[in-house]
Amino acid sequence: MPIKRRQVLSGSAAGALSLAGGLASPAIAAPEPIKIGYLPALTGPSSSTGIGINRGTELAVNEINAAGGVNGRKIELIVRDTQSDPTKAVNGAAELTKRQKVNIVWGPLNSGESLAAVPLVARDGIPQLHPCWVDSLTDVKKYPMCFRDAPTNQQIGAAANRYVVDILKRKKVAVVSDTTGYGTASVEAYAPMLKEKGATVVYQANIDAANPDLKPDMLRMREAGAEAIMPWSVNAGFLARICNTRGKMEWDVPIVGQTTLGSGQTKALLEKPEYWNKVYSNNFRNVCFAKDGKLLPRAAEFVEKLRKVKIDMGDTLLWWIALGYDGVHMMADAVKAVGSSPEQITGYWNKLKDWPGVYGDITFTPQQHNGFQDDEVVMCEVNSLRDGAFNLAPGYAS
Amino acid sequence: MLESIVSYGLAIGAVYALIGITYNVMFSASRVFSFTAGMLGMLGGVLGALFIGKLGLPAIVGFVLVLACGAVIGVVTEIVAVRPVLKSIEQHLYVLSTLAFALLVQQLTAIEWGTEAQPFPRLIPIGSGWLDQQFWLPLLACAATIVGLEFLYRRTLVGRAFLAIAEDSYAARALGLPEQRLRLASFALAGVIGALAGFTGGEMLLAFFGNQSILSFYGFVPVALGGMGSNRGAVIGGLALGLFQQAANFLVGGIFAAVAVFVVFIAVLLLRPEGLAGATLSRRV
Amino acid sequence: MTDLTQAAMLATMPRSSWRARLGKLAPFLALGLAGLAFPLLGDSYWGVIVTRACVYWVLVAGLNMVVGFAGQIAIGWVGLLTLGAYTTSAMTAGTAMPAVSPYLALVASAAIGGVFGLIVGMPALRLRTFYFAMATLGFSTIVTQVALAWKSVTGGGIGVPGPVFGWPFVGDWGFYYFCLLLAGLCTWMTANLAASRFGRALVAIRDTEVAAESSGIAKPRLLMIVFLFSGALAGVAGGLFSSLQSYITPDAFTFDLSVLFFIAILIGGRGSVLGPLLGTLLLTALPEIAAPLVAWSTFLYAALLLAIVLLVPGGIADLLDFKNRRPLEQHREIVPRPELLMQLLHGKRGETLSLSGVSLRFGGVQAISNLDLDVRREEVHGLIGPNGSGKTTTLNVISGYYAPQAGEVRLGKVILPPQAPQLRASERIARTFQTPRLIGSASVVENVMIGGTIDGRGSFIESLLTLPRHRRDEAVLRERAMLALLTVGLDQLAEVRADRLQHSELRFMEIARALMLQPACLLLDEPAAGLSAEEIRRLGVLIKAISRTGTSVLLVEHHADLIFDICDRVTVLNLGRVLAAGTPDEIRSHREVVSAYLGA
Amino acid sequence: MPISVRDPLLEVSGLSAGYGKIGVLHGIELTVGAGEAVALLGPNGAGKTTLLRAISGLLPRSGRIRFAGKDMSATGPRDAVSAGLVHVVEGHRVFTQLSVFDNLLLAGYGLPRSARVHQVEEALAFFPEIAEKRRDLAATLSGGQQQMLAVAQGLVQRPRLLMLDEPSAGLSPVLVDRVLAAAAQLRRTGTAILLVEQLIEKALATVDRVYALARGTIVLEAHAGEADLPNRLEQAYFGQDAQAPLQT
Known about the structure:
The structure holds 4 protein chains of 4 kinds.
Chain B: H1 2-30, H2 36-54, H3 59-86, H4 93-113, H5 133-155, H6 157-167, H7 169-174, H8 179-200, H9 202-205, H10 211-226, H11 231-252, H12 254-271
Chain C: H1 3-37, H2 44-69, H3 78-93, H4 102-121, H5 123-126, H6 129-149, H7 151-154, E1 160-161, H8 171-194, H9 197-207, H10 209-214, H11 219-245, E2 247-248, H12 255-268, H13 274-289, H14 297-311, H15 315-319, H16 341-344, E3 353-362, E4 365-375, E5 380-384, H17 391-398, E6 406-411, E7 414-415, E8 429-431, H18 444-450, H19 460-464, H20 468-488, H21 503-515, E9 521-525, H22 533-548, E10 552-556, H23 560-566, E11 569-574, E12 577-582, H24 584-588, H25 591-598
Parallel strand pairs in C: 5-10, 5-11, 8-9, 9-10
Antiparallel strand pairs in C: 1-2, 3-4, 3-6, 6-7, 11-12
Chain D: E1 8-19, E2 22-33, E3 37-41, H1 48-56, E4 61-67, E5 70-71, H2 77-83, E6 85-88, H3 100-107, H4 113-125, H5 128-131, H6 143-156, E7 161-165, H7 173-188, E8 192-196, H8 200-206, E9 209-214, E10 217-223, H9 229-238
Parallel strand pairs in D: 3-8, 3-9, 6-7, 7-8
Antiparallel strand pairs in D: 1-2, 1-4, 4-5, 9-10
Helix pairs in contact in D: 3-4, 3-6, 4-6
């Protein structure tokens, strides 16, 4: 996808194409489009997630607009690339809410940018849907119009902890991260959770990802008697170095952690393919291969669709695409059902129950804007990657 | 643990030392400190990964191409960012012009190559543990560079001309030495050394645009420690820095290791601004 | 005042003052009014962008004093922004201590920013340019690392919410006006500073440190004040930034931001306030306007920086400087008016300068050995000798650049401390230089005012706020500088950029600058070099007249005719020793002198 | 009234030069014949060093310079050297970090490898006292030896015209004689010499003709043997008649 900040994605060729600044108005008096303000990080240091989600987002918008839109209204996607920079996210959010007066904001897709953008969008009273995991990013009191269609860090960590403690039966755990906001926050949150589950955190650290040598930390972990390593980072280089160092130390210990452990970029940085064995990353039951090697019907159908429109899955992850796809459909469904005013959308979502997404079933209540179900967060075997999806990790009852 | 400190510390130290030498070679020829030293190191890794990893060229061809690119970029640096500001060197415009040029190249790399670290191919599939190529290759490159420079400076006429220009460019010009061409050659040489640093350190540092700032800073520390223009100082300073950093890494952990290096850097500069081994006194009036 | 000076003053001063002042004020007023009226447009998106520009400007305004004026290459100033942002946020959120009002937290940020500005700046007093740049770069990384590590206060990687400013600056537009107010305040303060003796002294340190020292400007002290000031503004900017961002995490403080601040100044033009202000506006708004280029923004900043450095080193400020593009009169003549000297130098006393037994060696070279020299009041004393005989070295020992290994230098009864050039001005020892040392980008009168820096009475704060004492200082200095220019015959060129002057004019300008000190002793280092015969004659008359007001004048010169015309006594040096001393006539007939000096 | 020179090797006319805004030389006219030795005299600050720099191209200048029939008005020092116009700069600035021999090799930078060593030996032959120290670092030489080395550097290229800038500065009288003797010896081999010198008597003993420079212009031109020359020089220097060059 070419690098453009404001890109208007507006249906088929026949559709009304209106420019972002409202410079040109539609030639025919078409019904007013639904404006979705979209804040992905398509460039910059943590853009791989954004690029994956973007494929699903664009697919859904095209699909809906090609089918005539929502109640005859086209979706107009107004894009501002945040470049993984919170400063640009603030400027972008301001443009979308204050100038473009969008109906809904979709994103930002990274926590660092969401932390800055969510309060601003909330101040302007515009409904917002984002897939960022940091817990404080939904808060029905502070941000009554902000919803999350993805798990929280709490859920992600709990799933990993469950796997390590309950399924792998490891009691001494090393919890580490890089020094980013996401990483440090995760370690802070998960270590106490592990303790609650009866495990011991024998090693806990934030490691500078710019430092190429992880051996000091890994040796310290081993000396501390760690039986499992839980790294929390979206930095592929950092995660690959953990796998590589473990391999070179010939240390037989499982690595259980963030989804990026299973990304293609991490794989590319491995010194030997077998260093990817016994690495388990977070994933989501709906988009994992079950024991029989098949996807669930909803996901299988989605993959077929992706194949048909020739969307590449090899260099990204299925759940990213699914997440983007679901997000747009959730917004479209709300408008279709009740209309596009902020109250209407919020009201609809507040009562959403078991909304069937490819990525997961979403349920909101007025008190709970985290829509993802606990048991849908699972772990998977990273070395089973094919078509952007993985096998469920061993030990789960299907 | 000691083995890891020593093998890794020396390896990364050798990369820093080579970047330090890159600073020095440019400085000797032009009295200019150039921000492009770290950039050359970064490019050495990225171009190596591009030629060998992405384009699949044989390692040796890729290696030669990387060095050639380093030389070309060195020459371009001289023409674009150094020569135009040499006339008014006392205004220190070179700090700005080389910073701008280095940023330009870094951003271009970020956009064209990507902002994610990418793998650097393994070149010689022998050795493991502390005998791994990623540990001895930078040391070998550092030793080869030192021997090569020594040979150049002591045994060849061009090398002596480099020394002559570094010592007294006015007298060298009067003798009919082609000062401008020699300066260009120095920058090309610096380009080769910088690219060599990045290439041999590639497996450790990966092909990553962000290495530029790391190498710019950590490569400069040996120069500050060893005294500007002194290659021997740069090598000793670089290896010492690598060991110190790695030891700090083991003892106090990543974040504080960076702080420790910074504190040592500032302390040395404040106590001995001319470096631990240098002395300069210039007439001002 | 004589009729002549009054006439000249009337002719030049008032015209240049109010109209010029209005011309200088107009762009600021226009920007200020535009800023006040901006909310009427009702575009709150651009409101955010302009608020951001105001916040950045608060930092850049201070940094401008460090980079643009003092010429220190501080590329890591984002570190201080980070510090200010966390201080304000943490104090407001109450993570470190009981929560306080954001306004109070902002004041605390200024204080902490100031202290750290000083700490970061300190190395600049000792380090070479590039080293200092590296040190600031290192500092900015360290601050982020500490922010990550010190979780209890900074929230580590999760960050902390930024403050929301309460009454009276409520809501988006309230915050906008708050930032605009502070930005305006910073503009006003830095513009005041730029037009004060402190601003001129900073530029002098940047462009001609040696002349600054000899005018009594103490670089360390001044730089420390400026780092304190600049750090305080960066701290305030950080506080505002955190509120604008609504939430801060370490990854918001990118090196790109530092580059933006730095480049805004250079694009704007060093030594200008308006230029960097425009530069900041431009760089903040550019990525919003040039939509498809957003990923290339840092690339474009870098390209812009390179282009500016190579093509327009003066930046926007130079492009806007229409006044100095008007051609100057081609055939100008310097006609000094020595009769004004009494008025210019009234009230000062000349003193005898004496060197006794001064010896200095550099390595193996004995530059001067056992030198005795007396320069009496009301006397022009020539110092001549072949190349390398130690003339300039002698001058440098007197002005405190070199410490002699033996002997002492006295003015009257006072023993002058060795190696303290910045202390010579307070002893009323002024000098000129072999190659004129000037601030090319400043006007001639500003260059001359440098010479009177130590006579300013107002403090830094008084200058920041243009309090009465500052205004009085400025008026006195300017008046005296105009008189000095009138005396040396350059009054018509007072408002011209100094680098547009001809070489001979610069020589006279240096003398005017030296006269600003009302010197007890004046050292002239080859003032006639490069002058025409007629100019040399006029110079001679001027120098002689200066001495007759009581000043002791030491003249190092090659032009034998000038020496023999105007000197009362002459000392001849050879190989660092006094070969002969006496009246010009004695010297001319001195056989050894003739052979040494002429080499016969 | 210029003295006519048969067979001029170097012709300078209307030459002006300076440093930045400072004009030092104004309209210099000067000639040196093939094989001729000429001294350039003048008080300090007159512009002698500047003139040599301008001729060799170390300084930007305007005016016309012809050397050996070729126009050299716009060429740099490198072309001057290869044309046979060699400038030995003031202050025995040799490269102290290199050996004596290496210093000389550098002086032959543009020469083919085989000729280079040969010509270096040739130059060394003029100065037996430094030939002995060929392996030593130049830093270890005395001032006089460094000056000899500087002159020897000038000889490596077998110049047709050697410009020497104050070769006597800072040397003891014995060494001055030694250096000037070498210059005289060189002259006998047919090399033209342009000598800037403070020691008038010694200079006059070495050269055929003199120019005197004051305040950036040529104020006197004379044969070395002319009567009363020292007095006329003194007058010229001290500027009794500063506005116009001396009449002869």
